[in-house]
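Fold it.
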Amino acid sequence: MATTALGTALRHWRDRVSPEAAGLPAGGRRRAAGLRREELAQLAGISADYVIRLEQGRATSPSAQVVEALARALRLTADERAHLFRLAGLHPPGPGTVPRHITPGVHRMLDRLSGTPVAVFDAAWNQLLANPLYTALMGEWRGRDLNGVWRNFVTRDSRVRQTPESRGALQEALVADLRRTADRYPADQALRALVADLRRHSARFAQLWDSGAVAAHDSGRKTIDHPQIGPLTLDCDVLGVAGSDLRMMVYTAEPGSADADRLALLGVVGTQSLDVAG
């Protein structure tokens, strides 16, 4: 059976990550303490067959997106992530690209905030990671809908209650923030492609982009209409990660409020639904 340094490294890193550390149930008897291939595939959003082919050396040229997803799922350090890119025959992302590496410390924060909806976004508003309660609250997105700007301008897929005025203000803030990101990372091809696609698919985005405004999208109070729990009015805070350009979006309820009770109920009902669906 063929093997490669890439496959050997993937198996080594998979073996050292426990399912509990990755937010997965341990589930019955296991031959090893680490992740199963199917679990790594689930966390990285790729097929289990592709993980097998990578480990066995039958697939040796994964895309940068797949390598990035594997690095996040395996909770690699910055140096390990760079090594994984090189093993895949790719150059690690340079300083002119949007940072997408999630440090082990950020992973641990999400693990410890299991009772709080938290998601991690890069500076271009791509969702990189979300804990189960955040997914239960906001819904599970895939593909282009993982980008918050795309959702707000193209698919309009959101449980957040909005008036025409609040939607307009949010769109203005998102475009201004994305422009600031584009100015900081002029070499990021994925970001340039995102902006070009947004301009093609949304006249509103193109109009705002051409206005040249530069600003940051920060915090707010939002009402989320959940299909099972009903409306929850929560504080939404966007926190920067020190030493990176990642943003953590955190939703909290006022202690003792009806919204806090609904959020606690969602932690039971919503995450059970996700387990069944998965």
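The chain has a mean pLDDT of 89.
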